[in-house]
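TL;DR need structure tokens for one chain.
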Amino acid sequence: MSWQKELDELALRKKLAARMGGEEKVKRHRDAGRLPVRERIEKMLDPGSFREVGALAGSAQYDAEGRLVDLTPSNLLIGRGRVEGRPVVLAADDFTVRGGANDGAVGDNLVESERMAQDLRLPLLRLVDGTGGGGSVRNIEIKGHTLLPKLRMWPLMAQNLAAVPVVSLALGSVAGLGAARVAASHYSVMVRDTSQLFIAGPPVVARIGQKLEKNELGGSEVHTRNGVVDDEAESEEAAFALARRFLSYLPRSVAEAPPRGEPGRAAPDQDWLREAVPRDPRSVYKMRPIVERVVDEGSFMEIGRRWGRAVITGLARIDGWPVAVFASDPYQYGGGWDGPAAEKFTRLLDLAQTFHLPVVNFVDVPGFQIGLQAEKSGAMRYGVRALTAVAQSTMPWCSIIVRKAFGVAGGGHQNAGRHNFRYAWPSAQWGSLPVEGGLEVAYKAEIEAADDPAEKTRQIEDRVRSLASPFRSAEAFVVEDIIDPAETRAALEEFVALTAPLRGAGPAAFGYRP
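>> reply
TL;DR here they are.
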């Protein structure tokens, strides 16, 4: 006997599911500048690699004889695929079916996607375009009762953050649990103008007297500057490229060490580093070209550029080995830490600890930011969290003291309880506080008694600065080594070569904090 009848029905069901929300809704979706979900999956994953799980799930209609008439597919597609040849789990919302709301999904496929990533130890990609929570208000009428929020998927989501790389792309108007899923990631991206993220959208917010357009309330201009979302892309395709690049630095799970890429080369002109820092300690300079000069060419991927801007964070490779990179930005408060900078620092350090990434830290920290606003914003609390994360870190560290390392914040440039690699440039200076900030207090009486207080201040500053030379500190073994800046790349190559075998594998002692 042939099973052709059942095979024909299988083909029909797959054909109906491929329509997504129907021709009209798909066209409306395209006209809004957004790709249909199945095209997103094709562009995100390696061609032909997607194996859908639950492809037949949906709401079916039958005639009087029980024959299939129509099928509305689930609006959450889940499955497995590959990115640059490496396996991943993917969960993608279909906004054309019930606006991506949970009442258009079927069963436990959201939970299943999280569990699949957990049990298979595979990176999880979320393409979020809807609420993804308890559904719309219409759901009350459909079910005949209201739902008590239980967040059954959240324990799995928290476990995944401590076990596998999680990347979320906000690709439309994302609210409620959908917004939370984006934020509960190791890396997140929004698309400029076409994606928004809300706790509650404009119609709800209007009820409290705030009439705002979608991008005013929750566009990428808002959330890439407050740290809710890491980065902004100009198009969906650009967002997919960012996701692929981020995953390339990380292992499949904490059970593995990060993979080494092709050994790369640094930029050819390392001598330029000797002139990168101006002699005048009050003059600013650009830190990013320094970072880009010493890591493998083109390998630095900055993360979260628009928030916590006193600290530059990202991923890079040195001789092919992935590392987490921190660097001060003298253009932002002189590199002084405020609350957002400390939060941003902690977040990347948690990522490095979770996925066994050695840390390279380019230091120019004058301390915590000072003043009334810093005190009111609780900068010290956030700073203490960052310093505690440093003390908890067990990954290898290499710190390059480019210029300043002052105060408590400057002291957190590596874990003082472990052996670390540490090099100072001749431009380095350090202490409990900067010379120029402490003269008026330490020498107050002497300065006030002088005939020319300004000249006396200059004389004292010159005298103290001569004693603050990093060479004096090196004599006392306060710093292990002072190097020619042009030798920084060579020092980092030794660092990664010696520490790569030490990275180990397995879960961190504490979970990742989004």
